[in-house]
TrEMBL record:
GO BP: acetyl-CoA biosynthetic process
Annotated AMP-dependent synthetase/ligase domain residues: 83-218
MF terms (GO), sorted A to Z: acetate-CoA ligase activity
SUPFAM superfamilies according to UniProt: Acetyl-CoA synthetase-like
Domain Acetyl-coenzyme A synthetase N-terminal per the UniProt entry, residue ranges: 24-81
Name of the protein this chain belongs to: Acetyl-coenzyme A synthetase N-terminal domain-containing protein
Species for this entry: marine metagenome
Cellular component, GO, one term: cytosol
Family of the protein in this entry: Belongs to the ATP-dependent AMP-binding enzyme family.
Length: 226
């Protein structure tokens, strides 16, 4: 026995939605009827450094399964997440952050986000991080964590996010697994009014990770960074 339940969406939410049920169903059907035309149209919403040549190339042969989308195309995720919005709506809010203490909060506009991400990207490049390098991010839930991820994508580095509640050994395992040579962390984190000694954990983890040569520390609480 199966029941189909539909819960009404409050007007306060549905009124500001970017899509309604009818539009969703129409778009979904378009994607089934003519997927190449549908995805070509969706791709126009992005900024491309180099245009794609073919929407998709697939092979499902037993010995050569291959699926490629937008072959020949080149884009930058950081630019698409930030730059195109900063150009059109620079003062629009990109990030709303609330700290462990709800009275500590921050709103970051798209133009501010672009400047902060570019600053961090330049710091990474200045420390020798280049395209293809792995960067471990071991941060609390703060805006700088987003800046770090977007900075990595901006310069073509691969970021590996490690949950800030993990132990030094768990952090070390993940640094070694992705062969990371650069790490971004904070002095401390705050979770449920409890102080998380992030930099101290990093110091212990790096005892097992001789190839991780550079650590960037974001000062959040003023805790000891060694």
């Amino acid at each position: 026995m199966t029941d189909n339940l539909i819960y009404p969406v409050p007007e306060m939410m549905s009124g500001s939605a970017n899509i309604d049920d009818a539009t969703y169903k129409r778009l979904y059907q378009e994607s089934l009827d003519n997927p190449e035309a549908f995805w070509a149209k969706q791709a126009e919403r992005l900024d491309w450094i180099e245009p794609w040549q073919k929407i998709k190339e697939t092979s499902f042969h037993r010995n050569s399964v291959s699926i490629k989308w937008f072959s020949g195309g080149k884009l930058n995720i950081s630019a698409n997440c930030i730059d195109r919005h900063a150009a059109k709506t620079p003062d629009r809010t990109a990030i709303i952050w609330e700290g462990d203490d709800p009275t500590v909060n921050k709103a970051v506009s798209y133009v501010e986000l672009k400047n902060l991400v570019c600053q961090m990207a330049n710091v990474l490049k200045g420390r020798g991080v280049k395209k293809g390098d792995r960067v471990t991010i071991y941060m609390p839930m703060v805006p700088e964590a987003a800046y770090a991820m977007l900075a990595c994508t901006r310069i073509g580095a691969v970021h590996s996010v490690v949950f800030g509640g993990f132990s030094p050994d768990s952090l070390a395992d993940r640094i070694i697994d992705c062969n990371s040579s650069f790490l971004i962390t904070a002095d401390e984190g705050v979770r449920g009014e409890r102080i998380i000694p992030l930099k101290a954990n990093v110091d212990k983890a790096l005892e097992r990770c001789p190839d991780c040569r550079t650590v960037l520390v974001i000062k959040r609480t003023g805790g000891e960074i060694g």
